[in-house]
């Protein structure tokens, strides 16, 4: 994956997180703000309606208490009522006018030049038995509701702020642990898969959709890992005998040669070739030839160590690498192996022999040079009559 594509993926991931945050904030703020506005408007209307009701009740009370005073023109009859009503901060002024005497019985106002009110006035005619006695007028301060609305607004704001913060405290951890954190794990899991690190498992415990997706990705990783291991095994394994093939041999022998050179330990290598194997194929067919090769592989594997490397490099040719083994010890092992092969009856009902050429790694050759030396020893074994072990470069017939 290119760096630019990875960067784009990171940007998209972060945009998802930002998108969720914005959706969360809007999802909480919009209804809370709407609720706060509606509640505040409701409180304002209640205050206004309450002020209007108070205005009407005050006017009614004043009308009831001034009828007799208007008939007798007795200001003292309304003074106590007016003084009591004026104690209420909502009332700005009160007028009581007698139409009979064409005079004010009472006219009181709180307004002064330095203080003006946003007032509203109501007037009602006072009559008795159809005769107009006068009127009463009450003015109230409409701005009285302003500080109450502000106080209500502050209270409502604090209430909805507490609700908003409480919702955030509840929702944000849920968003983080249920969405953002799993998304981040999925992102890292995908990066691991993209990097080809198929051996790194990622366990998911939840039952939600993201956990199911994570388990699906891990199952896919596991299957890919198994498939790649199978493909790798196929690539380095001889299908017929199950031994390493040439590719498998090359990858492993380099490691063994490195260890031998580093620790100055002996390492011997031999090339083995079944004598007259072509006659088996020509006489009994390739199917029987395959059975013979399988039997030969079994015989050799039964006589060598688990630490030895035995590979089929083609046809009836095999290679045996023996780490921690000097050429003298290896020659003895190979001689015994040659005798076991010669005494064995193979699937076609006959005995076969094997020719072996071997050499010892000096610590300076490369793989190609080492194989070339062993091949020369094998060629010499063939030339000298087969069914023998030849050590090279210091030839010694065993």
UniProtKB/TrEMBL annotation:
UniProt catalytic activity: 2 GTP = 3',3'-c-di-GMP + 2 diphosphate
Any one of the GO CC terms: membrane
EC number(s) stated in the UniProt entry for this protein: 2.7.7.65
Keywords: Membrane, Transmembrane, Transmembrane helix
One GO MF term: diguanylate cyclase activity
Top-level enzyme category: transferase
All copies of domain HAMP, residue ranges: 177-229
GGDEF domain segment(s): 265-394
Superkingdom of source: Bacteria
Gene3D superfamilies attached to this UniProt entry: 3.30.70.270, 6.10.340.10
Biological process, per Gene Ontology: signal transduction
Membrane-spanning segments: 20-40, 156-177
Protein name: diguanylate cyclase
Upper taxonomic lineage: Bacteria, Pseudomonadati, Thermodesulfobacteriota, Desulfovibrionia, Desulfovibrionales
